[in-house]
Amino acid sequence: MKFTYTNPTQIHFGQGQISSITKNIPEDQKVLIIYGGGSIKKNGVYEQVISALANHTWLEFSGVEPNPTMETLDKAVKIAKNENVEYILAVGGGSVIDGSKYVAAAACYEGDGWDILLGKHSVKSAIPLGAILTLPATGSESNSGAVITRAETQDKLPFFSPAVHPKFAVLDPDAMKTLPEKQLVNGIVDAWVHTCEQYLTYPTNAMIQDGYAETLLKSLIKLANQFNDRDNDQWRENLMWSANQALNGLIGSGVPQDWATHMIGHELTALYGVDHGRSLAIIQPSLLRNQISVKREKLEQMGRNVFGLENSDELAEQTISAIEAFYHSLDVATQLTEHGSDKAQAIDSIIKQLEAHKMLKLGEHQAITLKESREILELAV
Ligand code: NZQ
Ligand code: ZN
Predict the structure, then answer these.
(1) Which residues form the Fe-containing alcohol dehydrogenase-like C-terminal domain (predicted)?
(2) Which distant-in-sequence residues (6+ apart) come within 8 Å of 308 by Cβ?
(3) 330 with 232: CB under 8 angstroms?
């Protein structure tokens, strides 16, 4: 095992913590507050942000959509450049935080912002950024990744840079009180699959990473089982912290990682508008069945340690069924057809996009080529 690990985001966790940002952003710096479609105006988050920044100079940009688009974000890039913005404050879910990362990076670049997603521009500098999280799911509030869509061409691509790693993040579970049930479920599923992407590969005897991943998975099962009693502080706190820890870099340090479910899932979202979390639930069980020979040992470990299943020759298969049952218990579909897509045409379109995006060798063994991706999709319809 070999890794270098740092997570520089200062976390302010708990109720009433939004006021902490006053000290995080120097008073002499001009702030651009970025948010989405307005949910923050219905749950008191906006007011708390404005009051925390009472002595700062700030501007705002709203309207970042779920699965944020370059087309919208470039308007904020223009503002950031023209107004000499010195700090960006993202207030929202993964889409707003990812979008803000793009704005922070593109504002320090003279070329076309999409170059960042194409890898033509490697981001070395960005406007400093902080995040106020309102939807626990992606972990974007304390990681260095972002996923941006180009609406015109239906491309949804990720980029990564330490320069866009948030300086601080506020995780106040009270902000979750207005979340629709559907988004809470999306968050559970996304955090679950993030953990799996860094755990369900092959054994490397990484006791700490495996043990912590298993704790996260068991906690997510508990939270899903308590879904009907979710209207309480501790349930919200535990989900918010689980989703953060699932993708802050820790459990993935020094271990093999997969991410094929995500890369194929992103195409489903870009082409058919399937919510991110739900795209993963469609792909993952079929992907695990397709890759069972190379994932068998970790699936068996998960079966024993997470689901409490007994040893048997069918343990890996039973683990996949248990994962599928977990999604179904949350009323989340695991087949593409449940979203009403035309089978043959959908598969062709997704494969075409994977090819265009050079997603030709996915997974921990780089063994999921377009052939395997097609097989996975065929299993998932
Ligand atoms: O726009 P507003 O009005 O805020 O409404 C949002 C949006 O409609 C709403 N919402 C958020 N907080 C709320 C709320 N509604 C009521 N009360 C609240 N407290 O929820 C809707 C969905 O929000 P969105 O930010 O799109 O959801 P999520 O956090 O699941 O983010 C999904 C995006 O993150 C990317 C996905 O691809 C997708 O684009 N990802 C980012 C990752 C990363 N940066 O590390 C990793 C992930 O795997 C993922 O790919
Ligand atoms: Zn995800």
Answers:
(1) 185-377
(2) none
(3) no
- Starting from the CA of residue 138, give the closest ligand: 1
- Is the pLDDT at 344 greater than 90? The verdict is no
Q: Is a pLDDT exceeding 90 seen at residue 340?
A: no
Cα dihedral sign, 93-97-98-102 = positive
Q: Are residues 285 and 323 in contact, defined by beta-carbon separation less than 8 angstroms?
A: yes
CA 133 to ligand 1 centroid distance, Å? 9
Taking CB atoms and a 6 Å cutoff, what residues make up the pocket around ligand 1? 36-40, 43, 66-67, 92-96, 98, 134-135, 137-140, 143, 145-147, 175-176, 178-179, 183, 186, 190, 247, 262, 276
Name the CA dihedral angle for 228, 273, 360, 142, rounded to a multiple of 10 degrees.
Answer: -50
Neighbours of 2 (CB within 10 A): 5
ipTM over 0.90: yes
Which protein residue's CA is at the shortest distance from atom 34 of ligand 1?
94
Mutate to test the pocket of ligand 1, among 35, 95, 171 (most ligand atoms within 8 A of CB): 95
If we measure between CA atoms, which residue out of 1, 8, 365 comes closest to residue 167?
8
What count of Cα atoms within 13 Å lies in the side-chain half-sphere of residue 103? 40
Q: What is the largest CA-CA distance in the chain?
A: 65
The minimum-distance atom of ligand 1 relative to the CA of 146 is 44
> Given this model, what pLDDT does residue 341 score?
65
